[in-house]
Amino acid sequence: MSNITYVKGNILSPTISKKRIIIHSCNCLGTWGGGVAYQLGQKYPKTELEYTKICDYFSNDDPRKLLGNFVILPSFKDSKTLIGCLFTSLGGGGSHDSASSILENTQLSLQKLLKYIQQGKKYCAPPNSPSKQVSINTDVFETKAEEEEIGLKLLLELMNEQYFSQFNEIQDLKHFELEMPKINSGIFGVPWENTEKILEALPCDITVYDL
């Protein structure tokens, strides 16, 4: 039995109200210029702004450190909708990476995202509450050196300190469903069946929306 459920429709439909993480592929240069990413930016402009800030920060060093990593951002509209960004290509549009590189980074970023969800709960105090601590499990990889080398630790700290602290209740990401469009198959031009094989090997259920 497949772990992928296909749904015909728009992943951004306003009628969807369950807890979910909308996962999509991103470049590392801070642009949501087309496809589903553009639609996400139109619906969740503050989320796009935070994604751009992250890319700008890494651009001062080496934006390639984002490749194969992920960040989960709030929608800033409700606590039921989170946006999972997979950094799968350095550039976007006509300057995107090769299909093989995009697929490799898709697999890496999804594996890390799943491990993060499985290991970490977000115990979130109300914003601006000095009496409570916001904690996160950052033990995503086996060695600290690997974590630091790829820049994941910084991304986890950003998620903890700047984003998830907005919630007034405990948020366990295990209670969020994983949903995505047919990632990589649009602007990045990767045949969907290649990404589908990666999803089928993951130890989780995923809903894929197809227009």
UniProtKB/TrEMBL annotation:
| Residues covered by the Macro domain | 1-211
| GO process annotations (BP) | peptidyl-glutamate ADP-deribosylation
Enzyme Commission number(s) from the entry: 3.1.3.84
Tell me which Pfam families the record gives.
Answer: Macro
InterPro entries, A to Z? ADP-ribose_metab_enzymes, Macro_dom, Macro_dom-like
Q: Give the residue range of the signal peptide.
A: none
Which reactions are catalysed by this chain? ADP-alpha-D-ribose 1''-phosphate + H2O = ADP-D-ribose + phosphate
Give the family, as the similarity comment puts it: Belongs to the POA1 family.
Q: What is this protein called?
A: ADP-ribose 1''-phosphate phosphatase
Organism for this UniProt entry: Hanseniaspora osmophila
Which taxonomic lineage is given here? Eukaryota, Fungi, Dikarya, Ascomycota, Saccharomycotina
